[in-house]
Amino acid sequence: MADKDDEAKGEGKKKGGSKKLLIIIVAAVVVLIGGGAGAYFAFFAGSGTTDAHPEPTPSAVVVADAITVNLADGHYLKIAIGLQTTTNAAETVDTSKALDLVISQFSNLEVAELSTNKQREAEKAELTEKVVKAYTEEKKEYVMAVYFTEFVIQ
């Protein structure tokens, strides 16, 4: 009889020990999942927004005086541009850098290179990229677009 009582006590300890072990395992899994989720949100989920800067907000358009650029074969391009400034820009924006980039972009091009809208838009997109880069300092854009306000080929 004593053997049966000892066996019953041993099985009770095993069942109680199994329940404790199961509770410890479940608790460990919950802690690991919670820690993993916390680490993910802390290090990875917000990382895309920390490096990006907000989109610039448009402000006034600054129109530069028209200039004449020499094209190839004795032709000329009279061009005037407008710079779409952002709220980061000062009240007045010096257009000298932009006009210098216009001269560099269009000098000595063939008339055929500017004769279609598609070609003009390609040149404008390239110019806009250069101008925005020239007017960006410390991740602040001061100019966000370039507009042709005059475009005459002679």
Secondary-structure element order, as H and E? HHEEEHHEEE
Strand residue percentage: 15-25%
> What level of helicity do the residues show?
40-55%
Query: What's the average pLDDT?
Result: 84
- Strand count, sense and closure of the main sheet? 4 strands, antiparallel
The coarse silhouette is elongated
Instruction: Specify the CATH architecture of the largest domain.
Output: 2-Layer Sandwich
CATH-defined topology of the largest domain: Tetrahydropterin Synthase, Chain A
Alpha-carbon distance between the two ends: 119 Å
Tally of alpha and pi helices = 4
| Number of extended strands | 6
**Overall tally of structural domains:** 2
CATH superfamily heading of the largest domain: Band 7 domain
Structural class: alpha+beta
Specify the CATH class of the largest domain: Alpha Beta
Radius of gyration: 35 Å
Extract low-pLDDT stretches: none
